[in-house]
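[Q] Does anyone have a clean C-alpha cell version of this?
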Amino acid sequence: MGPGDTTSFTGENVRGLNFINESLSHHFRRHFRQGLRSHIFEILDGKDILNETQGEIRGGVRWFPRAVPRQMLRILRTRFDSLDKVLDEVNRYRMILKFLGPELMAVSQEFIVEYQGSDGSEILLCGLQEYIKGEVLDPWNLQGDRPLDNFFQMHFPGEICAKEWVSKAVESISAFVGQIKSMIVDAGYIPDLAGNGNLLITAQGDLKLVDINNIIEARCNDTIFLDDKNYPSCDKSVEVIAILEQKILKNNKFMDDCLYRHFFTLERRERVKQLEETFYQNLASVSVT
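[A] Here you go.
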C-alpha cells in the first residue's frame, strides 16, 4: 500500500515509507480532514501520545490531554512523471508565500522524495507544514450583521481580549483579501479558498490559509478555470473574497471592482453553478462505487 491509495493510507503506513526515518520518536496520526489532493498527518511527540493514552496526574486528578501536533505532514497523492512538474508545483507554493507571507498562511517546508513501491520508483512531493490551532471560517455560514462577533463567541467563549481579537481578525482578513486580489492581477493565479476547512482563524484573530496544494489559474477572460478535479475553484474562490469584503469588511460598493463585475455576470454564474453540480454528482458516484 502506497501514498497513491485514496482511502486507507494510515500513520503506520507512513512509518513504513522508505524516506521516513524509523528511529524517530514521533507518531503519525491521520488528520480528520483529508484533502482530495493530499494525505495529511499530524506529527506527534511520543511523550504527548503517552500522556494522551495513559494520562498524567495534575493536582491529584488524572487527565488525558489530547496530543497537540508539532507539525503536519502532507503527502500529495499526485504521481508526477517528471521532476519539472514537481518543481512547477513547488514554485506555485513559493508564489503564494510571496504574496501572503507567514502572517496569512501556514508555512511549509516542501521536499521531493523518490518512493520505492511495488510498481517501482515514483516521485512524490511532501511538505512539513506549520500546525495552526484555529477554527474553520466558513464564508457561506457568516451569521448576523457582525459575523466575527458571533464567530468568536461560538468558538472562543470566555476569551479576555475577545473584542481585541475580533478587531485583529478584521485587519487580517482585509490584508488577506488585498493580497489575494494582487495575486490575481500580478500573477494570474488564486489558491483554493472554497474548500471546507481551507481558512482558519486563531484565537488571537489571525486568518490563515492552510490548504496550499490547489492553486488555480485566474484570468479575466471567458474561460472558467477548473482545478485538477474539475471543480470551478477559481470562480468559487473569487466568490469567497467577495463575501469577506461584503459581510466582514462591510464594503457595500465591492461590486464596483472590475474583478467582481467580470466574475459575477449572470451568464457566468449560471455556468459555474452547472459545473459545480456536475462536480458533486461525479464525486457522489465515485463514493458510491
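[Q] Thanks! Anything notable?
[A] The chain has two domains: 11-129, 135-288.
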